[in-house]
Amino acid sequence: MVSTDDIGAALEQVPDPELPVSIVELGMVEQVEVANRAVVVRLIPTYTGCPALPMIERDVQARVADITGIDHCRVEWCYDPPWTPDRITEAGRAKLASHGVTTPQCGYVDPNHVPLHTSALACPYCGSSDTRLDSPFGPTRCRAIYFCDGCRNQFEHMKPR
Amino acid sequence: MTMQDMMKDPLANIVLMHADDKLMLGHMQSDWTGLAPILEEDIAASSMSQDDLSHALVLYDHLAARFDLTADAIAFERDAADYRCCDLITIPDEFDWAIALTKRWFVATLTALGVDRLATIDDEDLSTRCKRLIPEQAIHVRHLSEWMIRLGSGTEESRSRMQAAINTLESDAGMMFEPPDHSIDPVDSFCCGREGIFQEWKTSCEDTLQRAGLSANLALPPESMIGGRRGTHATHFTDQLAELTEVRRAEPAPAW
Asked: Could you tell me the pTM of the whole model?
């Protein structure tokens, strides 16, 4: 009998196609159900327009269906609860930081007014807080681009909710 | 359940209003991919278009489940008169950044208020979806507002071109608040009640315009004025819709 823990272990092997973390570390996995030989995995998209979602879905199905005792795996995308960077695990945060991607502190909510994001972020390379937003639209839907005036490096930041 | 049932449903019309705005906005503004004024904005404008299309999909998916349709059928297979997008979006920008930016900013500000309201509505699927859209839409509004301020308080040329764009678009911006359909009971005064949402939109726009040193005459259109929200679209909409649906018509069931 395959347990949800076995499925969870398999999901830890599913990478995000664009970041050096697994979908578990990113907090995308909401629920796993095992009934007989079929599995339903409920995933939360980090961003609605993320083009990597179909790839992640295929990877999850392939990994889970590979487990002995499982014949079928279905992925359900859900929006409840909405994904926020709070869902990223400690290990995930550490891996992102070493990759030059910072994450908002848990519970942080971006103030909803102009001007955009004025709070200083620590640069993942030199630690300086002399940083500023370059563009809220980065290489992927979930990341913004910042610039550090301390070490003159660009870095990325997971968008807060 | 059919497309006709959907078109007769008051709440569906409100959802379509925002979804169709997003579909057309994403479609039209993707023309700027590769052409936006600076590299960062090229990425930003393309990202916003990508968001717009995926936001439309999130809303169409809700309607598809509710009316036993598919999102693609809703997006691509309606008659022109069944689209609820506003005329403002369909005005060609002729690759004038001031026009493109001002148009998008007017619409994005309204969409943000619309999804805020829909997120509190007594429909679990719809409200859940809209809750997800709120933070994504807020980033659009803030980014576009920053541009309005940057160009409004920039050089004399940038200021005058922004003011000219506002003057060109302000009356069509008011037409975004045309009620969706006369024949539909406006049950949803909460969601589309013109006065309330219009005033909030106006206040939000004027706040940014004041920071930008720009001004606009933002007013509700007379009830008698009929436009895109009720399916009477400007003439160029037919061509835009034909372009948007070309692949779907050529290949009804494409697989990527």
From this structure: 0.91
